[in-house]
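Changelog note: in this version the structure field was regenerated for every chain. One regenerated record is shown below for reference.
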Amino acid sequence: MKKKLLGALLSVAMVASLLAGCSGSAPAADDANATQAEAPVSDSAEAEAPAPAADGSKIGISMPTQSLERWNRDGAYLDEQFRAAGYETVLTYSDNDAGKQVNDIQNMLADGVNLLVVAAIDGEALNTVMDEAAEAGVPVIAYDRLIMNDAVSYYVSFDNYTVGTLQGQFVVDQLDLDNAGDKVYNIEFTAGDPADNNAGYFYQGAVDVLQPYIDAGTLNVVSGQTDFDSVATAQWSTDTALERAQNILSSYYADGTQLDVWVCSNDSTALGVAQAITSDYAGSNTVLITGQDGDEANLKNVVDGIQTMTVYKNVSNESIVTLALAQAMLNGEEIGESLIPSFGIDCAFDTESYETSAGHKCPSFLLVPSVITKDNLQELVDTGLYTMDDDGYLHAVQ
């Protein structure tokens, strides 16, 4: 498990200690709305800063939406980290509207931000405003989701392909597929938003692990829906995932056919699939359901045996890496692998995997995700970001 995170009340001195020596030498609720969390700030607001940075630097932080729990956490952590380090911040949420995100970023540029941290709604839709940032000399960190524009300076995310391979390998291990013999397990897939560059990595990672077992007949996709476009879920919508799962169950499993596994790329889609299985599945067996993010409603389902696992990405760690990288950039330091020890966090520097245009690779800092099940929920509590109540349910620390 990754190291414990700095708390919400991180002091300036603690951040300065974290960043010492930064230099480099090379390039919730139970229903379908449970993913919505209380907003840490207004939809578009300039956050209050206790004091500007010594050089007067201002950071623009653009998040996709407040309708998913994880983006509220990301925005809050980033805002806290930068303000604690003495930077002025502008934090916006763009309602999953790419046009609004463009306007939000343009307003930040007009407001004189010195650096942008952007989690894109649509990685293909920000070309114009990224070009404007480049013209203004404002560097950009693509946060969590890659922006398909060469003006992006760096990409900070988790190893997205590994997220999928962890889900796939979990299925292999739980069903002991290597020793299945003639037994056949029925499986379905739900992937993420086609506009999110990460969604393809998540899905492909899982498929690459599971495809040999599909080819061998050990895994059977009863619906026949295996290509990404067929299983994708626009905007990672819980309701969309629920509706599709209900249609699959009524079309292919109503006759008592047993469903064994449903691979969901994240927790908001897993929430919809779990709801469909709870209400519409004719079988009596427990279906193995994967997820990703550690949303409260899904962790409750893990405790209750409804969802089997989630791949946890510690977004507070992601904000720490982003802050350290941003400070090094603003200080004019050379960025590379040698910056990683200053993070105090498991991370890799990758200059080959993420391409913003033909032949142009975006240098990336990739954090390491982990698998959470009912058996190791205490690891989340140990991060300091969750508490556990008397019933064993986890709650994110606000």
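Spot check on this record: The chain has two domains: 12-158+314-368, 160-292. The first helix runs from residue 12 to 18.
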